[in-house]
Amino acid sequence: MAQLDVQAKLAILADAAKYDASCASSGTSSRNSKGGKGVGSTEGMGICHAYAPDGRCISLLKILLTNSCIFDCAYCINRKSSNVRRARFTAEEVVRLTLAFYKRNYIEGLFLSSGIIRSSNYTMEQIVEVARSLREDHDFRGYIHLKTIPDADPELVRQAGIHADRISINVELPTETGLTKLAPEKDAARIESAMRDMKASIADAGDAAKHFKSAPKFAPAGQSTQMIVGADAASDADIVGKASTLYVRFGLRRVYYSAFSPIPDASAVLPLQRPPLMREHRLYQSDWLMRFYGFAPKEVQSAADEHGMLPLDIDPKLALALKFRESFPVDVNRAPKEMLLRVPGLGTKAVERILSSRRWRKLGLDDIARLTLSITKVRPFISTSDWRPTLVTDRADLRMLIAPKQHQLELFAA
């Protein structure tokens, strides 16, 4: 490998990291370096690209330790047989880069992943060394998200959790069949075993913190994973089912979905075209329904068609409402929170406003219009003190009336 300077390595390895979608900084504990102690912070505003639930932008240096890899996963641009330019950072170079970027106010934390070099244990040792050096040698208090390697020794993965805010262990593909076909060197059982161990370590640290104030924190922002969408034959229903299982069994904070993107010199087993980006978006919406709206996985899966695919022209919540019209209209002045959350167009904040407002008086259609972003989508599925959709909910063309209109963009529009 030709000798590259740090800037050239950064250009290659930052670009190689763009395919990893699981880059967020929510859920960690609050730390800062006020008073002259330590370096870095998990607070404050940055210049890009990860957002916390409260809207804060947490900028992260998102790079790979190396894009060289001994594995040959068909869907990965950094696979062993891929003809891409290779580069590799040392652990010390990543530490220096992170501190230099932070001190210039470019970033608030680090997202570090890597291809596998020499062995899983060797690569994991290098990743852990970066986090250890930042925390112990430089007292870095910013956010650290590490992508771990399931095949590595469990003690190395545990060490990563001691120094990182969040740990990612990617399941890669939603079905074991797809993983065996496209990534034969990876084993679904080993991946799930690593996730199970991580869950146990996080739970143990939480129990210790309840009894001892000095107990060390362990991955306080939890663990996440990522699934590639469209590289294999898995349907949306398969993906939703897999995600719900992962949430229940391993206590994940997030499941990320990444639409497969065709890569140079691709294997013949891969599709020639990427799936619609809207498919990825619909899966995130389905994920939201399960996590924040109280929908059961089977309910979300029932929004799919006979092939297990979610509709692309309307969101899953609207698809469910149109499919099960007998549950509507919902009386906004009487219905429990669980039913209000099932009304298309009503988000969690709008439902909270409705519940708060109706304690004082009966709500009319104009009141709901003021509490929501669009009354057009909501109106066919609710009844108020002055409105009941007697002829609207049962219309055969209701989907056409409330579905978002498709617009052709003009090539030379101003």
Automatic annotation (TrEMBL):
Keywords: Iron, Iron-sulfur, Metal-binding, S-adenosyl-L-methionine. Its cofactor is [4Fe-4S] cluster. Transmembrane segments: none annotated. Residues 59-286 form the Elp3/MiaA/NifB-like radical SAM core domain. SUPFAM superfamilies: Radical SAM enzymes, RuvA domain 2-like. The keyword Heme does not apply. The keyword Nucleotide-binding does not apply. It comes from the Bacteria. Signal peptide: none annotated. This is DNA modification/repair radical SAM protein.
